[in-house]
Amino acid sequence: MLYREMTETFMIELFEKHRQDCMDLVQKVLDEVSQSDTHCDISIGLIELEETRKMRDKRCTKEEVEKELFSEIKRVNKCFKNIEEFTKYVEDKRYKDEYDKNDKLSLIDTNHSSIIRRKLDIIRYKYTLGVELSELREEYLVLLDQVDKTSYNFGFRDCSVLALGILFEEGIEKFEKLISIMDRVKKHDLMYDYIVNACGFKRKFYSDVFWDDDFEFMKEVIELAQKDKEQASKKLVYHFKTNWNDSTRPYGNWLWDCAAISKMFKLDDSELKDNPHYPYELAHYKNEMEFMPEKMLDFPKETYKKGIPEYPRLEKLIPAKFHEITNNFLNDYKKLDYDEFCEKYELDWLEPDEYVGQEEDLETFGVNFILFLSDIGYIFQFDKLDDLEEVEFYKKFWGRKKVRPIHFQLNSDCYYIAYVPKSVKLKSIFGVKIEEVKDLKELDQYQEYLGQFDNE
User: Which pTM does this prediction carry?
Assistant: First the structure.
């Protein structure tokens, strides 16, 4: 696979430098083949004849899309190379200690996850360029292969993976692995839950908000489709023509999720054939699988128990949605043996022997508490500024309250950001300093991205 990716990179770099010469050469060969009795199948990786490829989004040029595409392919190659190097490092037992070994294993995992993210972009760019769907399917199969090899989501949108699986009708059996990842980090995305339900799966954790507000209209489309598909189709078409048909939206922003839901309901999307954000061609690529769209809105009613009696001051800092589970955490800390407590909440940021003598240390508990709040989905943990676009989602836990971002300083390679009401004033919590953040962009002064798996 690595050889194939490197070969593809070489060919596209060659093509980029000598575009016209390559096209003339290919045309000459084709002319000679057409005059002979010999059948010849010419494949140059990504490169197709300019005359036969039709851009699916005509608001951009081939050159600007290919430039982005080539960059992503290089990054994927780097990830494969890193995986190979780190795997050999571990297999040859070159690690200094268990911490070093686990660090390399974690980087291997992260690289697999990063490939998923990059492949999603590659599929997006290739679809924009007008590449054959059969080739995009092959890219998706490579992506699916990484799902088996990772246990962590490093920046890829799970819902896009599911939606593409429905559109290609591939890899549905791997959805359970993705669901377990989403459930473990308690990630909210109603679009994701709709698709999971329609495929016959169930989450242990259900969302109550959309990850992206742009998709909120789909709830109304789904509700209409349950009763009147014609009206739902009109709603879908109207929304895309009204909100997703102008030059202000970025090119290559294909809403796979909406197309997947439309496909499962068999809505009439014929008026969206030329919409630059609705992947019409892919929505009609295959139609062999049966789904259960009538189950999309089947959610257990979730109720919250307000109040944190173990530490009432936290009620102003933590949204009501997380009150009960936070109170249980504090109560377990008092009642459980320390080893049992760490095992139950998977607190493994220190080696077991490093915990000795720190069980009652306030700062150690504070770090555990912040990591716990991150695990349950209240605090946004990230280690790259590119991920800042996701932090806006975390405001939604407070509804219409006016909030501001704060940063919990753990002296680690990650940032820990949460939103709190503007009226809340705290300088620290359980020994962990809280920093006011006026502009999230200023965070880059604290650390330099490690980037061992994502070098440019």
Answer: 0.69
